[in-house]
Amino acid sequence: MNIATATATTEAPSCAGPDRTLRSPRFAMPRGAVDTHAHVFGPRARFDFSPERSYTPEDCTVAQYSALLAQLGIDRCVIVQGGAHGTDNCVTLDAIAELGPRARGVAVIRPGLASSELQALYDGGMRGCRISSVVRGGARFEHLEALDAEVAPLGWHLLLHLHQSHELADLLPRLLALDCDLVIDHLGHVLGNEGLDSPGFAALLRLLETGRCWVKLASLYRSSQQPYPHEDMLPMVHAVARAYPDRLLWGSNWPHPIYRGPMPHDADLVDLIPLWVPDPAVQQRMLVDNPAHLYGFGPLS
């Protein structure tokens, strides 16, 4: 069932929290590494959830996430506004302020904000906005062109969160006509059994070919039909890493909301990096150089 079309209830269904045990990965992150995809939820006593939301997460706070970053050896991060908080970006702005210069954010907004409101989001560390066909309460693809026009002057990108990979192929003509750069969440949700010849993967490659699109290697456990280390995803991962090393990004997807499979441990997800990207030079691009360019991180002090 597509969460976005589920019937709203007074209290949206609960979803499991992350594995909260902290342990270090075997893979050593390079200095300046960026986790480009994480969410912060709550604490609900301060930041209530949207009544339009599709799910009700546990409190997963900026303090808990900061401790995880330290354990994983990650210096920088990008907080993506979580669907449970809808278009009230206060929780993400608060997290960015708490984390300081090592953090950036991606907002969830709908068209129609005043330029002063958009500038305030930029000043608070936001560098893009997310459009989703997966969760309720945020921006949807009917808002695509309007948001593109409104946020392009800020230099923002549009982060695309897809329920099924064929949506990328369906959207391709519209996406190619946009002014903003694009970031494709979760490898476009191309499933392990769809593979290299799927329309969704072909559309992803066409967008990467433009030089105005980036792709996140994050949350691929959702797309795999195999247990860890999810080897059915390797053909797609290796294809984009080989052809577009300057377009790759990596993200943890902590705290893994609305995932119904065995909850991944974040250290194990870090340890997938050398399997996905064996070349240290490409690891450096994916983990450090590419996100520093996209999100505007300066030299690490």
UniProtKB/TrEMBL annotation:
One of its GO terms (molecular function) is hydrolase activity. InterPro entries: Amidohydro-rel (IPR006680), Aro_Compnd_Degr_Hydrolases (IPR052358), Metal_Hydrolase (IPR032466). Residues 1-12 have a biased composition (Polar residues). SUPFAM superfamilies: Metallo-dependent hydrolases. Pfam families: Amidohydro_2 (PF04909). Residues 1-22 are annotated as: Disordered. Residues 34-297 form the Amidohydrolase-related domain. Gene3D superfamilies: Metal-dependent hydrolases. PANTHER family: BARREL METAL-DEPENDENT HYDROLASE, PUTATIVE (AFU_ORTHOLOGUE AFUA_1G16240)-RELATED. This is Amidohydrolase-related domain-containing protein. It comes from Comamonas testosteroni (Pseudomonas testosteroni).
